[in-house]
Amino acid sequence: MKRRALAIQLLSAGRTSALSTENGRIRFWGIFLAAGLMMLALSGLVLAYATYEGRDIRGTSRTPHIIQPGSGDKAVALWAWGSDDVAGRQHSVTYIEPLVRDAPLPPGLSKWPEPGEAVLSPALIRAGAQEGVKTRYGKLAGTIGKAGLQAPEERFAYVRPRAKLLDRQDMLPLAGFGVPAGSATGVGESMSVPDLSVLTAGVAGFVLLPAGALVVVSARVGSAARERRLALFEAMGASRRARAIYTLGEAGVPATLGAVVAASLLLPALVLDIPFPLVDFTLSAEDVQRCAAWFAGVGIAAVVVVLTVAVLLHFKGRKSTRAVRPTAGSQRLPAWWPWVFPFAFLFTVRGPELAGDDLRLPVYALGVAAVLATLPAVIGALCGWLGGRLANAGGRLGFPGLLIAGRRMSAKPRGTVRFVTALIVMIGLVAQVHLWTGLLGQNATLAKHTQDRIGSTLLSVAPYADAERVRDFAAGMPADTELLLVRQTPPTDESPGRITLSGTCDALRALELPCESSQFHPSRSGLDPRVRELARWSLAGSDGIVTIARGPVYGATARAEESLSLVAVSNPGESLSLPLLRELARTHLAADASADPLGHSWLLGSNDLASSAAWVRLLGLIGACLTVLAIGISALAELLRFSREMAPLSVLAGDTRINGSVVAWSLLFPALLAAALGSVISMWLTTPITVEGGAPVPGSTYVLLGVGAGVCAVALCAWGWRSTNEAALRWRPTLD
User: Fold this and answer.
1) Each residue's pLDDT tens digit, 377-410
2) How far, CA to CA in Å, does 238 sit from each of 10, 172, 319?
3) Any residues with CB less than 8 A from the CB of 153 and at least 6 apart, and which?
4) Which of 2, 79, 206, 462 is the most exposed place for a label (fewest CB within 10 A)?
5) Quick count: other Cβ atoms within 10 Å of Cβ 335?
6) Where are the membrane-spanning stretches (predicted)?
């Protein structure tokens, strides 16, 4: 009973002393934020798993049960899969045709569409509103319910082809929808999303790791009153267990409150679909409800992690009577170490150009590592130099806050070095990850250059159909659009490739080609750029031959090793209406016909990479904010120790604005400087990769990271100003 009573008293003592001093309050709110953010980070991993699991469950329920030959199952419907795109993003199109009256419906549909009708997802309707997607596949017969979509924002379509376009031989018989777990075809959104391991790695690296750093930094913040009390416990013979109980009482309340507040922030996701900023993703309430029981365990785990770190760091810190604070090891480096930075930077920017193709990436990676390794020493030297200049400027201009902050930075730069270095390194890492996730391949780059040169003045139309369908398609085209037949023979070892363009004289003249039969090499000067680009993509870049032949575009028959397609050409050389020609192609040629710019499929793949890069921007922004909070809390705690020495000055001056000036120059200015330096350094570090064939990191990434860092720094600055003012108001002169 006595031990239990003593434990309760120690817990109570720790709880009541937590807010007794300014540093104690910083420790309290730091642990509060750390526990809450740790729970949100762990919840992010749980939600990622639940989202992928829900996507698999709903994808499995709509996967067709294809009838295998000899199985004896009765076919109730026909099924085929295709794809299309709107707004630069690819989506799945499923073609269905019921064979019996009571055929089971696909999930999300209330009835079978009639021939020539389509049922689209709400997200597809919204995304394709400007491209006429409502009528592209036929008459709109309704929208797909949530049960038939892998995610709320999935773009998906069910299409029942028109009777004249129904090609039964190209469709598969099915016995119904829904297959055993693990045998889904992967049709739909799951084709273009990254694996769960990739997303969890991003959450762990950009969110969980900075949240863990915040836990460590908050637990290490010390205060003089707390250290005196712990020293008194130790002098009275208190055991390690007793001191641990006191620490639990001190950290238990803010950790529990932080977890509870974080849990309350997740409650709306149980009933509402929550859209995420910066990325095209909406969190499904159904998935959140399925993993709701995990949140309690996640909250307990977050509290246990925070309390364990607090107790372990407390035991480690008792070897010294000083408060436990992070230390900067850069002072142990040799004096010449900062001079390595410019050589490492030059090596990174120019070295890959001089290295061979096999060594380019290793040289670049080695250079980036050298830059990040030498950067802290450079920042330390810069802070020491800049502190003296700021102090001199404050003395000349009569700004006491600038004078005090500059002298403090010059005398004790380690806190500023940690703050600035962590933020710059975070921005650099986010830029590097964003660079490599958004890097275009060679074919995607060629497609981008092709579209820059000719745009949509020439469109490739496929598949080639019978004469009646091609006539109907040509008759529906606008008056200023011409149609050409393309015969393509791939290159072989014995002969180069060949393409033959056939059409009317008006169609040939639209490409500035002669009306009589001729042939030429596609590299010939004076050619219309559209002819050169068409030959490049049709011949896969080989040295082939282009043949011109006047003749009809319909009724053609492919010869051996030859393929047929169509191209639509703008007669005045202006851009064609892509939505109109796509709708005409699906109305007259085939249910899955397409009309696309040259190399369009490669650009769709690069857009999927851009979608992944958007997740990097979002997670990187969160990581940058958490880094500012983690290192900023440490710097704020050190500043408040200094504010007790500065308190008499503000009392004698009768004005607390000097405190705000010192805090602004000590916290806000370094954060803004770090954001600017991080952006410039990271931008230069990406130049060796952003050659022709690479996608540069957009400037919006640096703007977002800088704004996020600035907002967090402003919040810390306001917190520090308030805390220093309160310390000054409580200051009283005492005898030595």
Assistant:
1) 788 778 778 888 888 888 888 888 788 888 878 8
2) 11, 78, 15
3) 123, 275, 280, 281, 282
4) 2
5) 8
6) 28-52, 199-223, 244-272, 292-313, 333-351, 363-387, 417-436, 614-637, 658-681, 701-721
